[in-house]
Write a structure and sequence with these properties.
4% strand, 151 residues, mainly alpha
């Protein structure tokens, strides 16, 4: 039986978010569209700072789930590590955009592909590298990383 203070996360929303990040970032690369990489990074950073404004998750909540295109997958989990992972990805995309604007396309697109690879690792294999880092920082007792893994 679930206790009332168990926290839950809809992993379908996370997967939709990852799919948008991957798809739009690949499109940005293919079109050489720095503005699109910047948009994805901004969406990630805004969604981290204000979870209710997370655009890709809202598309899931308001369109994909109600239309029955994606079914919920709600499990007991902590949202903080996922937000940390998304925020870190947003920072990496911000650095990528700065590199692209600075005329360093190999570095910039390399950073974009790093975000794509890590999002794909999570989407296709279920391993969240950012969550892993979050929990390692929690284990070290760093301030701000207060949530321990659910056992």
């Amino acid at each position: 039986m679930n206790s009332p203070n168990e926290r839950k996360v809809d992993h379908s929303a996370l997967r939709v978010n990852q799919a948008f990040i991957i798809g739009l970032s690949i499109l940005a690369f293919l079109l050489d569209a720095t503005w699109l990489a910047a948009f994805v990074g901004l969406v990630m950073l805004v969604g981290t700072a204000v979870p209710s404004l997370a655009l890709f998750k809202r598309i899931y909540q308001h369109f994909l789930r109600p239309a029955g295109l994606v079914k919920p997958d709600v499990i007991i989990d902590n949202p903080e590590p996922h937000r940390f992972a998304q925020g870190f990805g947003g920072v990496v995309l911000a650095l990528a955009v700065i590199a692209l604007w600075a005329g360093l396309p190999i570095l910039g697109w390399g950073l974009v592909w790093l975000v794509i690879a890590l999002a794909a690792l999570n989407l296709f294999l279920g391993f969240c590298a950012g969550c892993f880092v979050y929990y390692q920082l929690n284990k070290l007792g760093l301030p701000g990383f207060r949530v321990s893994p659910i056992r």
